Amino acid sequence: MEKSRVLYITHEMVPYMQNETEIAKASRELPQGMQERGWEIRNFMPRFGCINERRHQLHEVIRLSGMNIIVNDTDQPLIIKVASIPTGRIQVYFIDNEEFFQRKHILHDEAGKFYADNDERSIFFCKGVLETVKKLGWTPDIVHCHGWMSALVPFYLRTVFKNDPVFSSAKIVFSMYEEDSFEGIINKDYVTKATEGIDNADLSAVTKADFGGILKGAIQYSDAVIKSSGFSNKDVLKYVKQSEKPMLETSFGENYLDDFHNFYSEILHEAAITAE
User: Fold this and answer.
1) Domains in the chain, number
2) Taking 70 as the threshold, does the pLDDT of residue 273 lie above it?
3) What is the rounded distance in angstroms from the CA atom of residue 249 to the CA atom of residue 92?
């Protein structure tokens, strides 16, 4: 029997990030846990400048690099790198671009200020992942996005890539984390930039380009939601409830990998029934 496939998209993963956040640990443990339970997996994250290429043995994948991604009406070159986590037999693909990711810090500058172009970095990352998976020809059954930086993936999957055979049958899961939040709006032109060149684009959930608005935009196009136990944004939780989409609440406790395995299986089972 052919294995079901999960595509993981995150901006943090142990051991590549110095801080072991909830996102970073979940992004490391989930792929291995699902792989051990019989799922086939792929992992994508940005190649932030703080990631030591020599220590982690990153190398460029020439056959996947070379595309250009349009962000704010500008062509940006896409470079794909890959590394392996030997202890878990897990391969990780890295989205790289000199202008967006070759910096010492991740999302904030040395003074702790949120980078002004984090919106464009997110757009480039999300588009870059999907274009690369398409080039790989690897068809996921589930696309699981972690945190706000991958929040545009559901939107792009249901618009730009909705008829692409690589993604057309994929179910989308979006994970929300309290530690992922930021203050203020990401950019007043966030929606305009994100929907550039897309006909009849609808990101009506993003009434304000703040943390909550960006998450609601992801939920708008997702099939299911994961809530970490510490997540407390009442406006977003109200939106999830109104959407009536399945939601799994997790504290990443002792049996959480089994909970995710069952949640994924239920989503695919429901999809199979609907398709009959």
Assistant:
1) 1
2) no
3) 26
Q: Is the separation of the CB atoms in 45 and 121 below 8 Å?
A: no
- Among candidate residues 183, 114, 124, the one with its CA nearest the CA of residue 149: 124
Q: What is the pLDDT of residues 98-123, one digit of tens each?
A: 999 998 889 999 998 999 999 999 99
Domain harbouring 237, CATH code? 3.40.50.2000
- What phi and psi, each to the nearest 5 degrees, are found at residue 168? -60, -25
Q: CA-to-CA distance for 187 and 95, rounded, in angstroms?
A: 22
Q: In a 10 Å sphere around its CB, with 0-12 CB exposed, 13-18 middle and 19+ buried, how is residue 38 labelled?
A: exposed
CA–CA gap between residue 191 and residue 209 (Å, rounded): 8
Distance CA 40, CA 121 (A): 28
Record the tokens describing residue 134, joined without a space: 């398409």
Domain of residue 38: give its range: 5-275
The model's pLDDT over 56-79, given as tens digits with 9 standing for 90+, comes to: 999 999 999 999 999 999 999 999
The predicted model scores a pTM of 0.96
What's the helix, strand, coil split of the chain in %, to 5? 35, 20, 40
Mean confidence (pLDDT) of the chain:
94
